[in-house]
Amino acid sequence: MNATSWTFADAYVTEDDVLRTARARADEVGVVPISAGSGATLRFLAAVLEARAVVEIGTGTGVSGIWLLRGMRPDGVLTTVDVEAEHQRLARQSFKDAGVPTQRARTIAGAALDVLPRLTDGHYDLVFADGDKREYGAYLTEALRLLRPGGVVAFDNALWHDRVADPAQRDDETVAIRDLVQQVADTEGLVPALLPVGDGLLVAKKVWVPESGD
């Protein structure tokens, strides 16, 4: 795919003023949100899953959260975790701008690996990770516990600025993402795909496990 076609595809679903304002807030605090194409993919996944419960690792200023909420059921609740309380304050403003009722977006300030173990096993339809790349492997472990059978885990930056595909790139973040991509491919009970949207979106479905005797 050439650059023109990739740009066309990534911008296929356009963003409204609410999302553009959330992006402007991200620029102000140095946060890099997901692309419009990745956001549209998250909304699609949430809609296909008819998601009622979603976990987001890395709130930012609410760009990805808005996309997710727009795909979820009207009664769905997004639980979003970020170590930066100020980013979450801006995200709550973005959610308000989007008309999201306060009870539908639960923001938790804290380190993901401190917060995730407190969440309920097997309760969530979708887990989206856009946090510390060096912790992606640990996020996968937590996601597999949190997801119901049939649920989906998604990781942003799975191509990491074209570095993951280049074996000469050996910095900590690139190696962690490269290891995650391989781990997801090798994990029994996952149906994976690596989508070339945005900076790469790695997705995997947790398959249903038949009960004994079925």
UniProtKB/TrEMBL annotation:
Q: Which GO terms describe its biological process?
A: methylation
Q: Which InterPro entries match?
A: Cation-dep_OMT, SAM-dependent_MTases_sf, SAM_O-MeTrfase
UniProt keyword terms in alphabetical order? Methyltransferase, S-adenosyl-L-methionine, Transferase
Which GO molecular function annotation, any one, does this entry have? S-adenosylmethionine-dependent methyltransferase activity
Q: From what superkingdom does this record's organism come?
A: Bacteria
Instruction: Output the Pfam families linked to this UniProt entry.
Output: Methyltransf_3 (PF01596)
Q: What protein am I looking at? A: O-methyltransferase
Q: Which organism is it from?
A: Nocardioides faecalis
